[in-house]
Amino acid sequence: xxxxxxxxxxxxxxxxxxxxxxxxxxxxxxxxxxxxxxxxxxxxxxxxxxxxxxxxxxxxxxxxxxxxxxxxxxxxxxxxxxxxxxxxxxxxxxxxxxxxxxxxxxxxxxxxxxxxxxxxxxxxxxxxxxxxxxxxxxxxxxxxxxxxxxxxxxxxxxxxxxxxxxxxxxxxxxxxxxxxxxxxxxxxxxxxxxxxxxxxxxxxxxxxxxxxxxxxxxxxxxxxxxxxxxxxxxxxxxxxxxxxxxxxxxxxxxxxxxxxxxxxxxxxxxxxxxxxxxxxxxxxxxxxxxxxxxxxxxxxxxxxxxxxxxxxxxxxxxxxxxxxxxxxxxxxxxxxxxxxxxxxxxxxxxxxxxx
Length: 355
Prior knowledge:
Distance between the termini: 48 Å
Structural class: alpha/beta
CATH class of the largest domain: Alpha Beta
Number of strands: 12
């Protein structure tokens, strides 16, 4: 049932009919304000909000259609019930096209009251539904914003925690004397950094579902170079990449693979000194290609693996999770070129694939 919270504005230059409409609708619990002209109506709209407007077609110096056009320019328009004494269908059609929710033809007798009340109740129902919809949308947006803020905070805390763990591992590596233990701890720190940098990228990103792989790898390589400062290894890493949005979990796998390949290149490619390692990410029609190449002693992926073999197992496991495998390709001259071909259908977010 309607209540006094529903505010109606009746715009008509007929004062007697205005009083009649006020009485009719007041009996049903509506609060009705009568405006005798378009100017008076807009003054009322400035002073308070209305839920429904009842608008007469003939306002003397102007028409209801002109008032409709002016209301539309204002932006937010309440539901409008259009009233006309003319039986011409064209007027009703024009009013509905202009944005009126319903229309009522003025008649003598009870028909006008019945039709007007029905149209107003229809408009009130639509207004309530619209308000409920807008409130629900506001609540959904507020919940989404809160979830995004919380997720950003989680990624921020995770990134900081992993940075702390990485620092502790580095301190431990500096404290041990055994070269093998020192190297193992350095590799562990690089793996922790790879994951931590992804979370750092996520809490500064607008969409945590995906990450720019090129930007992520660039940060990862900078951190990798920084971690080797002061050691016997002085790397020269050249990085080239195209922008490419990939799913977050895929980026973690690619980051770990890149870290392992860089570690291997710097450990084994140049036994007599440092040289250049080239990391490249390029985009083809149906796949992205990640390559890590050097000009060192060369290795084809065959033969005896030195060390624990943990890095190789990590690379195989991560490549398998990406639906691909690591291959070693021939290149001119000496050196090793490890290539990872990444299917875009698996890598890219669904909304990007749809584009």
